[in-house]
Amino acid sequence: MTEERAPVRRRGVERSLEIQLGPLGGIDLRPTRVFVWVGGEREGRERILPLGSAPRNLRIPRRERELQAGAVQIRSLGNPLMTIALAGVQAARQIVAERDEERRRAT
Fold first, then answer.
1. Which of 27, 45, 25 minimizes the C-alpha distance to 36?
2. Is the pTM of this model over 0.70?
3. What is the Cβ-side half-sphere exposure of residue 23, based on CA atoms within 13 angstroms?
4. 27 φ, ψ (degrees, to nearest 5)
5. How far apart are CA 78 and CA 62, in angstroms?
6. Are 19 and 35 in contact (CB under 8 A)?
7. Tens digits of pLDDT across the chain (107 residues)
């Protein structure tokens, strides 16, 4: 009988969805920012694109998941669909705020 380990759960960090496309580069989507990089190594090569608000750390522990499909590696902390939805809301808020600011300047 094999002993199964409980999945790793993390708290105190931001939820994330990271996609590495082999040696081409990758993207790490979080609800408040996006990290992008070119090449197989991320450290020191990433650019950060803020989505408007300060990062919020997870209070409830979330599972880390990892999937490898050929040269594509996907890692997530928390539900990937929720991460995408939260980032979309932040991006939409930022776009609306910038549009409103442009309108105020024009009048």
1. 27
2. yes
3. 0
4. -140, 140
5. 5
6. no
7. 455 677 678 888 899 999 999 999 999 999 999 999 999 888 888 999 998 778 888 788 888 999 999 999 999 999 999 999 999 999 999 899 899 999 999 88
The three-state DSSP-derived secondary structure of the chain is CCCCCCCCEECCCCCEEEEEECCCEEEEECCCEEEEEECCCCCCCCEEEECCCCCCCCCCCEEEEEEEECCEEEEEECCHHHHHHHHHHHHHHHHHHHHHHHHHHHC
The one-letter amino acid code at 99 reads R
How many CB atoms are located within 10 Å of the residue 64 CB? 14
Round to whole Å and give the CA distance between 85 and 64: 18
Give the pLDDT confidence score for residue 10 in this predicted structure.
81
